[in-house]
Predict the structure of ABC transporter ATP-binding protein.
Amino acid sequence: MLILADHITQLPASPASLLEIDAIDVHYGAVQALFGVSLRVRPGEVVAVLGGNASGKSTTLKSVLGLVKPTRGRIALDGQAVHGKPPADIIDLGLASVPEGRRVFAEMSVQENLLMGAYPRRHEKEAIAADLALVFEAFPRLAERRRQAAGTLSGGEQQMLALGRAWLRRARMVCIDEPSMGLSPRYVDAVYEVLFRWKAEGQTILLVEQNARIALELADRAYVLQHGHVVLHGSAQQLAQDPGVQKAYLGAA
């Protein structure tokens, strides 16, 4: 069922939810960026947050990661409140982040960047070596450049590296911000090939994306934000067929 914003200011608590966001407001100084945003992510689910520029998508993700602090409302992981906690403490609960702009360690090599993702599980040497091989298999360009400084990679290669770093984290939930932004179609295909693989393996993903068409192909459910408000949410299939979503985000006449 598609649900309009007036009916979702408060979503019912669900013990099956890994992430629960309840009616959060976020301000940047005097400017309010989010207005009563609520959403849920269940284990093994891919949830997309869609919207145009300045819709509040990235602010929602940053709130989950503790990079911005809600002025009202609640964020919980496995029922444990995390709003107001430092980002490092939230990440330690089993999250990984693929941020907008990639944010690789420019002076470090590709392989060193990848191993930074595995640092929380650094004692699992055999498992890390196996996962590193999987990343290089999925992204042969990274394998070719494993000793190259990450700052010398192209934008598409750096996005692959950011995904690979999250892969090595083996997180309970991966938070991904605009993975297709600024990439050529070839690199978008390579990135989403890995995301579809993660979905098939049961990886929980919270995805912020302007490319609504490909995001709705990947996602199980999605939320649409406008000017900091959730205006619509439902299954990805339902949203893809909604005339308003088609007109606003999918290029339908």
Notes: The mean pLDDT is 90. The longest helix spans residues 185-200. The chain has ten helices and eleven strands. Residues 104-170 form one domain.
